[in-house]
Design goal:
Layout (H helix, E strand, L loop, with lengths): L4 E5 L7 H14 L4 E6 L4 H10 L4 E3 L6 H11 L5 E5 L16 H8 L3 E6 L6 H11 L6 E9 L2 H14 L4 E6 L8 E2 L2 E2 L10 H13 L2 H9 L37 E6 L4 E3 L2 H10 L1 E6 L12 E4 L1 E2 L5 H6 L1 H12 L4 E4 L1 H6 L2 E4 L2 E4 L7 E4 L5 E9 L11 E8 L1 E4 L8 E7 L8 E6 L2 E4 L10 H16 L7
Parallel strand pairs: 1-4, 1-5, 2-3, 2-4, 5-6, 6-7, 10-12, 10-13, 13-15, 15-24, 16-18
Antiparallel strand pairs: 8-9, 11-14, 16-17, 18-21, 19-20, 19-22, 22-23, 23-24
Helix pairs in contact: 1-2, 1-7, 5-6, 9-13
Length: 483
């Protein structure tokens, strides 16, 4: 299949590739192209902005959590109906997990045979830019560095020297020179940019990026390079995120799961300004496995509806702790339902929300009160990077002996842990976990709460088991006959 595609990479982080990618997706969308954004790695925050710019769910392509064939299949599935793919890299282009660059942006570009556009921060640099670009061209010769975007260019004389150096010594085009200017208005916080869904007043940043890219980049030439990418051969089908062998639907819009199981079950999802970290494939996988998803606001909805399960993803409950505490009725309802056997799967922010209390400096607020611990916000990362956990106790979602590949992404730690009451389903073999003994996966009845973020493409059994647990719970309830 012919999939026009570009990888936007950089020599190092903070070079401006997120700004350029955001603006490029918005600008091409504004031209009438159906742009599918992708993000290399397990990030949630950049994809929230790219989703807004492209008006299609940004999808993650991760070579640690997913096998190569799953990455290729996820790419193809995401590209259904799209005209062009824009893939934002991560860190420096050749940075990976080891000296060989395993899992790097370059490895992803190689796997997808995608042309790479290198974004270079040219601060205090002139002719040296050619040496830098040439090094990236030839360090791994099979990577197609097809063009350069020069960022933070000082003035016209600076621009002329930079462009001449790249074109003379590297023989690849300079596709744009972006001047130094104020940031786009997306503030940083302890885990990176503020997610798009948290503060709608930040949305104009997308339009600012679109104008910047439209003014200073050669969009026609970028599209031509994307269209020059070679056709991809169809791979041998890999595991499906649904766990049932069929492809997930390409968007979050339709429920479309009728007929895949005996009956639909209802799973509530806390998805609002607090809880924003959800991979679209995870939600789609639940729908394809037979779930109807009901989205709730943790700060305003007074109670759970009549549901058979609850999914709480990641986000920033510490930022909204007072608002969460104020919604006492929902917190009490969740605790009561969970204690009665409701299947609940909670990741990171979900774990924090299910704890007794969260503390951040002088601030403190009550949470759901289900887990035998409190949570403390710290000034530095407590878990940040890829993680692997072995399942040591059966749960509704995973079986003993299974290995789970995911990532941790938080500045909080468990404190005031009641070890007599605490049960853990996971032993973390890579990463930090929830306590000093590398345990994770709090287990209470049908509840699992973990710091580990998982992607449905990497754990295809998760969605099917979640739905089956919800169906079993529904059938066991006295009210099931009337539903």
């Amino acid at each position: 299949m012919n999939y026009p595609r570009l990888v936007i990479a950089a020599p190092q982080g903070r070079s401006g590739k997120t700004t350029i990618t955001l603006g490029l997706v918005a600008a091409l969308t504004g031209r009438g192209l159906l742009v599918q954004p992708f993000k290399k790695g397990p990030d949630y925050i950049d994809p929230s902005w790219l989703t807004g710019a492209g008006r299609r769910p940004c999808r993650n392509l991760d070579l640690f959590m997913m096998e190569n064939g799953v990455v290729e299949e996820s790419f193809r599935r995401g590209m259904k109906g799209a005209d062009i793919a824009i893939i934002e890299g991560a860190m420096g282009m050749y940075d990976g997990l080891d000296l060989e660059g395993t899992g790097s942006t370059a490895q992803l570009a190689r796997l997808l045979e995608a042309p790479v556009i290198l974004v270079v921060d040219t601060t205090r640099m002139t002719r040296s830019v050619a040496a830098l670009v040439s090094g990236y061209q030839h360090f791994e010769p099979d990577i197609n560095v097809a063009g350069v975007i020069l960022n933070k260019v000082a003035r016209s004389r600076h621009e002329k020297m930079l462009v001449a150096a790249v074109e003379r010594y590297c023989q690849i085009p300079v596709l744009g020179c972006v001047p130094k200017r104020e940031e786009l208005g997306i503030p940083d916080r302890h885990l990176g940019l503020v997610p798009k869904g948290e503060d709608e007043e930040l949305v104009p940043a997308i339009e600012n990026a679109r104008r910047l890219v439209s003014e200073y980049l050669d969009l026609d030439r970028l599209v031509a390079i994307a269209r020059s990418a070679p056709a991809l051969e169809d791979p041998t089908p890999g595991p499906s995120p649904t766990g049932r062998g069929e492809a997930s639907p390409p968007s979050l819009a339709g429920k479309g799961a009728g007929g895949l199981g005996p009956s639909l079950v209802k799973i509530a999802v806390l998805k609002d300004r607090v809880f924003t970290f959800y991979y679209p494939e995870n939600l789609e996988a639940l729908e394809s496995a037979g779930a109807e998803l009901l989205y709730l606001d943790s700060m305003s909805d007074p109670a759970l509806p009549d549901v058979d399960g609850l999914y709480i993803g990641g986000g920033f409950p510490e930022v909204f702790m007072e608002q969460l505490e104020a919604n006492r009725s929902l917190r009490e309802d969740i605790r009561r339902r969970a204690e009665a056997g409701l299947p609940v799967y909670a990741e990171c922010a979900g774990l924090i929300y299910l704890s007794q209390r969260v503390r951040w400096g002088e601030r403190s607020a009550e949470m759901v009160g289900l887990l035998p611990c409190e949570i403390e916000m710290t000034g530095k990362p407590q878990g940040h990077g890829y993680a692997v956990a072995e399942v040591v106790e059966d749960t509704p979602f995973f079986r003993r002996g299974e290995l789970l590949k995911g990532h941790e992404f938080h500045n909080t730690r468990v404190c005031q842990l009641d070890r007599e009451r605490a049960r853990f389903a996971y032993r973390v073999t890579r990463g930090s976990g929830a306590d000093s003994q590398h345990n994770d996966g709090f287990r209470l009845g049908n509840v699992v709460a973990t710091y580990l973020h998982l992607h449905a493409a990497a754990v295809p059994q998760w969605a099917g088991r979640f739905v089956e647990a919800a169906r079993s719970f529904s059938g066991a309830r006295p009210s099931a006959q009337s539903r």
